[in-house]
Amino acid sequence: MKKILALTMLLYIGFLSSAYIAFANGYKTSCDHPKASAQLSRAQSLASAGKLEEAYSAAGKASEFCIIGEGFTKADKAMSDQIDAETKRLANEIAKLKEKQGDFENAVKWYEAAGNYDQADKTMMKWVDAKPKNKGVLSIAISHFKNLKGDVFVAVSDDKQRRQKAHGYLKDLEHIASVRGDNDLVEENKVFGGKIKEDGYIARSQIAIISAKEWFWFFNDTKMGNARNRAERRGDLFFTGKGEEDPGALNNALNYYEIAENEGRIKSVKARGNELGDAHARKGKLERALKYYQAVGNDAKVEELSGTAEKKKEQTEGQRKEKFKKEQGSLEKELGF
C-alpha cells in the first residue's frame, strides 16, 4: 500500500515537474487529447468501482499525455486543468476514506497531494490526539509544521495564512507535550508514593520520569527541571542510612541520579560502591565485593574478580567434597563396611 501511495504521488509530482521543465526549457506543448481523455475516462470508471487509488494512478498517467509548454492552446490548457482537478479530487476522496478508517498518517499525505493543506494540518492534529503515548507521532507533527535553521522558523508553505496557522498549531503541540510530561510525573508519584508498593514499582517509576523528560525535551520546557528534581529525590531515598551498605539500593540510587543527570551524586554513589567492594575484596568476600562493583557499573573490577571468585568457589567445592569423602570413609570403617 505504501509503495502504491508513493508511486501515485510521484506520478502527480512528476507531472508538475514536467510542466515546469517544459516552460523553463522552452519546450513545445505536447497534448494528445484522445489518449489523455481515455485515461481520464478509465480513472472515472475505476473511481465508480471504488478503486480510488487505482483511479488516482490512472489520472496521473493522463498527465503524461498532456505536457504544457510553449504554444499551448485554450483546449490544451483546459485538458491540463481537467487532469489536475480530477487528480486532486481523487486524492481528496482517498484522504477522506483514510481519515475515516483512522489511518491519519496516510490521510495527511493524501490531503497534501490534493492540495487540501488546511485539512491536512487538521488531520495531523487528530493523529496526535489519537496517539497520546506516542512521541514519534508528536515529533512527526512538529516537523510537519516547521523546519528549523538555527532559531529561524521556516514555514512548510509560502501561503501566509497557513504559515500563521502553523505557528498556532506549534503552540498547541507545545501545550500537549507539556501536559503529557506532567501526566507522567503524576503517574510516577502514584507508583512510587503509594502505600502499597507493587512488584517492579522502581522500574516503572524510572520509566515514567524518563518519559516525562522526553515530552519536555520537544520544546525545551522549563519543566525539565521538575523531572530531574523528582529523579534526584528518589535517588536520595536509596542513598541514605543503611541504603549505602546495600548493593541493590546503590544501584537504584545510581539509576535515578543518571536520570537526574546529577554528575556529583553519580560520582558519590560510584565511589561508595567501589569503596565497599574493595573492603569486602580485602576480606576475601569476593562474591559480596562483586555485587558492589556490579551495582555501580565497575566492569573492570567485575571482570577482574569474576575469575578469582570462580576459582575460589571451585576450590571450596573441591575441599568440601574431599572432606565428605574422608568422613564417609571413617564412618564406613566404624560400621564395619
Key attributes of the depicted protein:
single chain, two-stranded antiparallel ribbon, 337 residues, 14 helices, mainly alpha
Describe this structure in words.
With 337 residues, the protein is an all-alpha fold. 77% of the residues lie in helices and 3% in strands. It is built from 14 helices and four strands. The protein has helices spanning 2-24, 33-48, 52-63, 74-100, 104-113, 117-130, 135-145, 160-193, 201-217, 224-238, 247-260, 263-282, 286-295, 299-335, and strands at residues 30-31, 66-67, 147-149, 152-154. Strands 1-2 form a two-stranded antiparallel sheet. α6 packs antiparallel against α7 (135-145). The longest helix has 37 residues, at 299-335.
General form: elongated
Strands of the largest sheet, in order across it? 1-2
User: What is the string of helix and strand elements?
Assistant: HEHHEHHHHEEHHHHHHH
Beta-strand level of the residues, as a percent range? Answer: under 5%
**Overall SS class:** mainly alpha
The biggest beta sheet reads:
2 strands, antiparallel
Terminal residue distance: 83 Å
Quaternary state of the chains = single chain
Count of helical segments?
14
Low-confidence stretches: 10-25, 148-153
Task: Indicate the percent of residues in helices.
Answer: over 70%
Mean pLDDT over the full residue set: 83
Radius of gyration: 34 Å
Strand tally, please? 4
